[in-house]
Structures are given as C-alpha cells and as structure tokens.
Amino acid sequence: MNRRQLLRATTALGATGALAGTAATSAAAAPSAPAAAPNRPLRVHIPLFDGVEELDFAAPYEIFSAAGFFTTRPVEVRYVSATGARSVTAAYGTVVRGLRPWAPDEADLLVVPGGGYARRDSPGVWAEIDRGTLPRALAAAARPGLTVAALCTGVMLLSAAGLTRGRPCTTHHKAKADLEGQGGRVKNARVVDDGDLVTAAGVTSGLELALWLVHRELGSDTATGLETMLEYEARGTVWTSSPA
Known about the structure:
Keywords: Signal. By secondary structure, the protein is α/β, with parallel strands linked by helices. The protein has one domain (about 40-235): Class I glutamine amidotransferase (GATase) domain (Rossmann fold, 3-Layer(aba) Sandwich), CATH 3.40.50.880. Helices cover about 35% and strands about 15% of the residues. The strands form three sheets. Strands 5-2-1-6-7-11-10-12 form an eight-stranded mixed β-sheet, with helices on both faces. A two-stranded antiparallel sheet has the order 3-4. The chain is globular and about 45 Å long. Residues about 15-35 have low confidence and may be disordered.
C-alpha cells in the first residue's frame, strides 16, 4: 500500500467512526441511494478527448475512486474514448495514456468533462462538436439505467448530442447563453439533477457533481466521509426535479 492509499484508508476509518450517528451536512438534500445489488459495482466512465480540462476530469475521477473507501459496494472508474483506446493531451499538456474503448453499455454513470470552449480553433469541445464522433456516441448511449452527466462546457457536448433540449441543465457561465439558445432550460444552480441527466457549472463544480452523484448512488455516509477525507465541503445549490 503506497503512502496515498494509506492516508486514504486511515482517513476513511476515522471518518466512518466520526460519522456514526450523525446527519449528512452539505449534501443532505440528496435523495436516498437507490436499491442496488450491494455486490454489483457502480461503474463510472469518464470520456476524454484532446484539449480536455485537467481539473474537469481529475476531480470526479478522484472522488469516485476514493468512494470505495467509504462503501461496501465496489466502485469501478475508467477513462474512455469514443475514438478507440488511445492517449489524449489535455488543455495544459498533461498526457493521459491507456484510455479504454467506448462501452457505455458497461457503465452506470457517464461523466463528461469540458475544456477548450473559449478556443474555437484549438483542441477541445468545439473540435469534438465539429468532428461529431463524441456527440453521436453520447446520443446513442442513452438507455434506461444509465445516468449521463457533464460539467462545465462538457455540457455543450451533451447539447450537441441533443440530450439537453427541453430539459433543466446548467454549464459554465460563459456558455449558458449558448446552452439556452440550443434548447436547454438553464437553471442558476451549481448542480442540476433531472434524473438520468445531471449537469454542473464551471470547472471546480466537478467536485460537487461527483459528490452529489456519490451521495445519490452510494448514500450520505459515503459522501460525507469523502468530504472529511478531502477536507472539502460541497457548496452551492443543487436543483433537482425529484420531489423533496
């Protein structure tokens, strides 16, 4: 066990004890975790592409991966590509290797990051929209049992796929007018949960998106345990279409 794993495991044990008998705090409004087979993994796929924003994909990956320390349900997280197993170069030069092939039928959650929306002639969201491969793959992925989520300008990839039209959603503040112009019902919230479509605002909101989904899928103790480990409290409003 390396130092990072040891720190996580130690913090997980401490947080579990500290949380016994206490109520959830910042994510307390989340619905109860759905009844899922306890031994069936929660499968999270994060699509990457050239020009993707580092924090957009790293924050959710960290949270979903660490969630396994706070729940008995297995959690599997993988980076995937709609253009086959490959490497990508992110917005600030980080190279991510070993991406897995696109397989949304093997996922429970698809979490789409953004990046590069302000640079129309550079790698990023615009290039992916122009190419069309990822939007088409996202449109075809929708099925019962799959939640499609996105943060920041990754939501514009969902918009290009036709998944946000007529539905409550949000995105980075500089892209909200575009999202609304393409038929999205834009909400002024940090996270917008419309059941099988969950979206979040700008770059750092990937933390809130992932914590919210962890709470929704794995329960409040898992989410608050993660907050303790990360020394981070989820902030901002979560708009949800579910009854209170």
